[in-house]
Write a structure and sequence with these properties.
Layout: H1 2-47, H2 55-68, H3 75-102, H4 116-145, H5 149-171, H6 177-206, H7 219-253, H8 256-270, H9 274-293, H10 298-332, H11 338-366, H12 370-395, H13 397-426
Helix pairs in contact: 1-5, 1-6, 1-7, 1-8, 1-9, 2-3, 2-4, 2-7, 2-9, 3-4, 3-7, 4-6, 5-6, 7-8, 7-12, 7-13, 8-11, 8-13, 9-10, 9-11, 10-11, 11-13, 12-13
Length: 427
C-alpha cells in the first residue's frame, strides 16, 4: 500500500509545484479578473464530475469487491456498461452548458474588462470538455480498482502541467479568455485517452479474453452501478456545490477580481490535501477488498492510517497558519493582498477537518454506505449556503473562508459519528 501512496504523492506534488510557479506569473500577465474567470472554470470542471453519475466510484467499489470474491469474470461486462452510461451522461451535460450559454447565462457574471463574446466562447469550449470529463471518471475508477496508481500519478502530472502552465504559455501570445480556456479543454481530452489506454492493460492482465467490442450493455450491471452510484451522484452534485459555491458567490456578490484574493490563499492551502488524497484514494479499494478477503483485518488497518493522517495534517495545518503571511508575500510579491493571509489561515483549520472527514468518507463508501454520505450532504447544503451568504455580505471574502471551514468541520463530525455507529451495530 505504501508504494501506491508514494505514486499518488508523486502525481499530486508535481502539479502543486507547477501551480506555485505558474499562478503568480499568470495573474501578472492576464490580470485579476481573467484569472478569476479561469479559477471559476477550474471550479466548473470540478463540479462537472457529477456527470459520471457516481459510476466511477461505484465501479471501483464493485470491481474491488468482485476481485475480493474471485469473481473477475464479471468485471468486463460491468466496465463496458459503466463506460456507456457515462458517455451518455456527459453528452447531456454538454448540451446543457450550450443551452445555458445560448440563453445568456454568461451575463450573470460581473466583469468589467472581459468582452461578452469572450465569456460565451469560453463556455462553448468548456462544454466540449464535459463528455471527456465524465468518461475519464469511469476509466480512472477501473485503474483504482486494480490499484494502478502509477499510471494515474503520471497522468496527474501531465494534467497539472496543462492546468496551470497551459494558460500561462498561451498568455504570452494572447489574453483572450477563450484561448486561455483551450488548455483546460485539451487537458481533459488528453486525460480521457490516457486513462482509457491505462485501463485496458489492467483488464487484459487479469481477464486475458477481454474484448470490449464483443460485450453488450448489461442491464443487471447498470442496476448495480446506479444503485450504489445513485447516492454517490447525490454527493457528487452536492459536494462540489459546497466546495466551489464560495467562488461563484464571491464573483456574484462582490466581483470577479475578489475571487483572486480568495483563490490564491485557497489554492495554497488546498494543495496540502494531496497527502490525504494520496492515502484515501488507496484506502477505498484496499478496504473494500479486505472486507471480502480478511474481514478481521480491515478496521485495524483503517485506524492506523486515520491516526497517521490526523497527526500529519495537524502538523501541516499549524505550520502553514504560522508561515502564511511570509509564504504569500514571497510567492505573490507585488500582487500580495493582506486579506489573503487571513483567508488562508482560516482555511487551514478547514483542511484539517477535511482530512479527517475524507478518511471516514472512504470508509463508509468501502462498506457500501454511499446513502449515508449523501444524506449528510443533503442536510449540510442549505445550512452552508445560508451561512455563506450571511458571512459574505457581512465579512467579505474572510466570511467565505469562515463558512467553508465551519461546513467542513461539521461534515467531519457527522461522518465520524455515522461510521462509528455503523461499526458498533455490526460488531
Amino acid at each position: 500500500m505504501k508504494s501506491h501512496i508514494g505514486w499518488n504523492l508523486f502525481g499530486l506534488v508535481l502539479p502543486l509545484l507547477l501551480a506555485v510557479v505558474s499562478i503568480p506569473m499568470l495573474i501578472t500577465r492576464i490580470g485579476d479578473e481573467r484569472f478569476g474567470m479561469i479559477a471559476l472554470a477550474w471550479a466548473l470542471m470540478s463540479f462537472a464530475g457529477i456527470l459520471d453519475l457516481g459510476i466511477g466510484r461505484a465501479l471501483t467499489q464493485m470491481v474491488s469487491r468482485l476481485r475480493g470474491q474471485n469473481m473477475t469474470e464479471q468485471v468486463p461486462a460491468v466496465f463496458t456498461t459503466a463506460a456507456r452510461i457515462t458517455l451518455v451522461a456527459g453528452l447531456i451535460g454538454s448540451a446543457g452548458i450550450v443551452i445555458f450559454d445560448l440563453l445568456g447565462g454568461s451575463s450573470l457574471l460581473k466583469t468589467q474588462t472581459i468582452a461578452p463574446s469572450e465569456l460565451r466562447n469560453s463556455l462553448f469550449l468548456l462544454a466540449v470538455a464535459l463528455p471527456a470529463q465524465s468518461m475519464s471518471a469511469t476509466y480512472r475508477g477501473m485503474n483504482e480498482a486494480y490499484l494502478n496508481f502509477k499510471g494515474i500519478s503520471i497522468l496527474r502530472v501531465v494534467l497539472g502541467a496543462l492546468n496551470f502552465a497551459g494558460p500561462l504559455l498561451i498568455s504570452f501570445f494572447t489574453t483572450d479568455l477563450a484561448w486561455l480556456m483551450s488548455s483546460l479543454v485539451a487537458s481533459r481530452l488528453a486525460a480521457l485517452f490516457v486513462f482509457r489506454h491505462l485501463a485496458f492493460p489492467c483488464l487484459k492482465n487479469n481477464e486475458p479474453d477481454y474484448n470490449p467490442k464483443s460485450l453488450a450493455y448489461s442491464q443487471e450491471s447498470a442496476k448495480k452501478l446506479l444503485s450504489f452510484g445513485g447516492w454517490i451522484t447525490v454527493s457528487s452534485i452536492l459536494s462540489p456545490i459546497m466546495v466551489q459555491s464560495d467562488r461563484f458567490m464571491i464573483a456574484s456578490i462582490i466581483s470577479a477580481a475578489a475571487v483572486t484574493t480568495y483563490v490564491v490563499a485557497y489554492e495554497l492551502v488546498i494543495q496540502n490535501l494531496i497527502f490525504v488524497s494520496a492515502i484515501s484514494s488507496v484506502i477505498f479499494p484496499t478496504l473494500t477488498k479486505l472486507m471480502q478477503e480478511r474481514p478481521d483485518e480491515w478496521y485495524p488497518h483503517f485506524k492506523k492510517w486515520l491516526f497517521r493522517v490526523a497527526a500529519m495534517m495537524f502538523t501541516i495545518s499549524a505550520s502553514l497558519m504560522f508561515l502564511m503571511p511570509y509564504i504569500l508575500q514571497l510567492w505573490l510579491k507585488d500582487n500580495f493582498n493582506p486579506v489573503s493571509v487571513t483567508v488562508g489561515q482560516i482555511l487551514c483549520l478547514g483542511i484539517f477537518s477535511n482530512s479527517i472527514g475524507s478518511m471516514y468518507f472512504s470508509l463508509l463508501h468501502a462498506r457500501g454506505q454511499a446513502s449515508t454520505t449523501a444524506k449528510i450532504h443533503m442536510f449540510e447544503l442549505p445550512l452552508y449556503l445560508i451561512f455563506l451568504y450571511f458571512a459574505l455580505t457581512h465579512f467579505g471574502v474572510v466570511g467565505a473562508a469562515i463558512a467553508w471551514t465551519a461546513r467542513l468541520t461539521l461534515d467531519a463530525i457527522l461522518l465520524a459519528i455515522n461510521a462509528r455507529r455503523l461499526q458498533h451495530q455490526q460488531a
